[in-house]
Amino acid sequence: MSEQNQVKLELDDIQRGVLSPRPSPYAATYILFRIDDRRHGRELMRRASAVVTSAADSMSPLGETWVSIALTYHGLKALGVPQESLSTFAWEFRQGMAARAKALGDVGENSPEHWESPLGTPDVHVVLVALAPDSAELEAAIDRARPAYEALSGVKAIWRQNCHALPTETEPFGYRDGISHPAVEGSGIPGSNTLEEPLKAGEFVLGYRDELGGLQAPTPEVLGRNGTYVVFRKLHQRVALFRQYLKDNSTSPEDEELLAAKIMGRWRSGAPLALSPDRDDPALDADPYRNSFLYQKDDPAGFITPGGCHIRRGNPRDAAVAGVVRLHRMIRRGTVYGPPLPEGVLEDDGVDRGLMFAFVGAHLGRQFEFVQTEWMNDGVFFGADDAKDPVVGFSDGSGDFTIPRRPVRRRLLSLPSFVLTRGGEYCFMPGLTALRWLGDLTG
Fold first, then answer.
1. Where does the DyP dimeric alpha+beta barrel domain start and stop, copy by copy (predicted)?
2. pTM for this one?
3. Is the dihedral of CA 262, 422, 349, 340 positive or negative?
4. What is the mean pLDDT of the chain?
């Protein structure tokens, strides 16, 4: 029996939000809490353990509806987790996202001083996430969770962000969302790319072997095992600016769509350039192999999918120059907030819209932080010096983006920042046993 077949994830102890792709369509909400009374915070953990959905509940009557709970470092401290245990958590987690802002490229307009309050502050202790196929089922899920916190005067809800799928089933820039998902051994959930071997469970769940053979988890084992780290980020999207830039740098509506595809690496329908280089092909949406493609083997120079485009940076797949890509894989999930900007509008209407992003992985440093700093905000790994991601990279207006083309490459100049960081948190998402352990703390 192979090692892969021997791995048995304890799905009934892992929160479902760790491994399951979000439903489509969906409605979601993020609620942040501050713990003012340690006893009430612990009671919240006890109650949450009965409300949170496990990864084994995928066939339950709740269907595609689930609730997850995560804690910041300040939240664990507020619960009274002993310092000898706190010291065993990842050092990036202990510092927090706001303290890591400069390294992450959250500077200028993206810096924590401009973040939406209370994101990035010591007041954020607990993050509750509820996800469902529609608003009615979402509210039902929240109603089930509400008794866990509503009567606890020492726990205060301090922020909420509602999210929903747009009628177009796209993100605000107009691209179809939610396409890629890695396979995790032992999860039973297939990946979206059939050419990618399932990743070791320890890349995403603490307490299991990872791709390097390591076994990592905070101590004691009852706290760390079956947990993971989750990065939450609120990203505001400048949709009108993005549309205007495409229009100003294209020669026709057809060229505008091609330019949008080259920047993203996919056409608006989600069809990858790798499989449909010359035109959009919405029919690929029904193809189970629509995400099964490689770059280095079939397109090393980026003539089809530019090396600097958004999706190739985020997951270079088989690119040898990017190091061992498997060490930097994450589970990514985005949920849209705010109303869509009406089609054709090229002026900002002042409405806040964008994505709430969640990145799931057991290694904050070599997963989220590596991808953010080395692949999104730098271009050295594919020979483009300090060029940043054209979609999410921070730019002061002097950036550029190169599209390989024969006989002459195409170069876009004066790239503005299309996406702004409005805040975020590094969180630990405990297993269900760990939630009960946190609830039973004394002292």
1. 27-144
2. 0.95
3. positive
4. 92
Q: Which domain holds residue 406?
A: 236-423
Residue 212 is assigned to a structural domain of this protein:
yes
Same domain, yes or no: 280 and 306: yes
Q: What token pair was written down for 363?
A: 């290694």
Mean pLDDT of 378-397: 82
CB-count exposure of residue 103 (10 Å: 0-12, 13-18, 19+): middle
Domain count along the chain: 2
Please give the Cα distance from 308 to 399 (Å, whole number). 12
50 and 149 both lie in a single domain: yes
Let me know whether 272 and 256 are in one domain. Answer: yes
The whole-angstrom separation of Cα 353 and Cα 323 is 35
Model confidence band, residue 318 (pLDDT cutoffs 50, 70, 90): confident
Residue 343 has pLDDT above 60, yes or no: yes
- Give the neighbor-by-neighbor strand order of the sheet with 331-337: 155-164, 27-35, 126-132, 66-71, 419-429, 228-237, 354-361, 331-337
Confidence of residue 323 (pLDDT cuts 50, 70, 90): low
φ/ψ of 335, rounded to 5, equals -125, 135
Contact indicator for 431, 14 with CB cutoff of 8 Å: yes
Copy the structure tokens of residue 278: 């010359």
16-66 residue pLDDT tens: 999 988 888 899 999 999 999 999 999 999 999 999 999 998 655 557 899
Please tell me whether residues 272 and 141 are part of one structural domain.
Answer: no
Q: Are 207 and 215 in contact (CB under 8 A)?
A: yes
Segment 240-290, tens digit of pLDDT: 999 999 999 999 999 999 999 999 999 999 999 999 999 999 999 888 888
